[in-house]
Amino acid sequence: MALKSTIFKAQLQIADMDRSVYADHALTLARHPSENDERLMMRLLAFALAVPADELRGRLEFTAGLSDTEVPDLWQKDLTGELVQWIEVGQPDDRRLAKACSRAERVLLFAYGSSTPIWWQALAPKVARLDRLTVWQVPAEASKALAGLAQRSMQLQVTVQDGQIWVGDGQETVDFEPRRLMPA
Predict the structure, then answer these.
(1) Can you tell me the distance from the alpha carbon of 95 to that of 128, in angstroms, rounded to the nearest whole number?
(2) How confident is the model over 31-71, as pLDDT tens digits?
(3) Which pTM was predicted?
(4) Both ends of the chain: CA-CA distance in Å?
(5) Sign of the torsion formed by the C-alpha atoms of 31, 22, 132 and 120
(6) Distance of CA 118 to the CA centre of its chain
(7) Around Cβ 77, how many Cβ atoms within 10 Å?
(8) What is the pLDDT, as a whole number, of residue 65?
(9) In whole angstroms, what is the distance from residue 128 CA to residue 53 CA?
(10) What angle do CA 74, 163, 64 make, to 5 degrees?
(11) pLDDT of residue 70
């Protein structure tokens, strides 16, 4: 018998002063049986950092993700169905990123985990020509701390100012500064 996804609900308050994005979002996320809390929270963080200020060019949405290897973790499609944003979390290979860049106007990658520097050293030369790609590294300590905030029902506040990010649930706060790997 196949395992089912676990449903998480998140009330997300975003105050991104760097992009002038201020909004509340009621989100439902499905955690694939092979996904851990750290990856789930990285998808939620990616949403908070990439959600557009308005929906004139479509909504940012979670996809089937791990259940479907042909789609990213999140995407934004305009009203004609064209991909505006393709967003990945983790450490995908160069072929996947090249495919994403050929399909979407903008590709964002939020890499995390202690092995990110080693993975990036091998990947960087292979993706240097992908001008639609932006890569951010979230410190391993921060992604692990974010996993500690995961609950089936969450109320989170995300604040971004001068490149610094604070994620809190009213009891605990995780603060960090992601490192931009590409473009340098």
Answers:
(1) 13
(2) 988 899 999 999 999 999 999 999 889 999 999 766 667 89
(3) 0.94
(4) 47
(5) negative
(6) 20
(7) 17
(8) 66
(9) 29
(10) 10
(11) 81
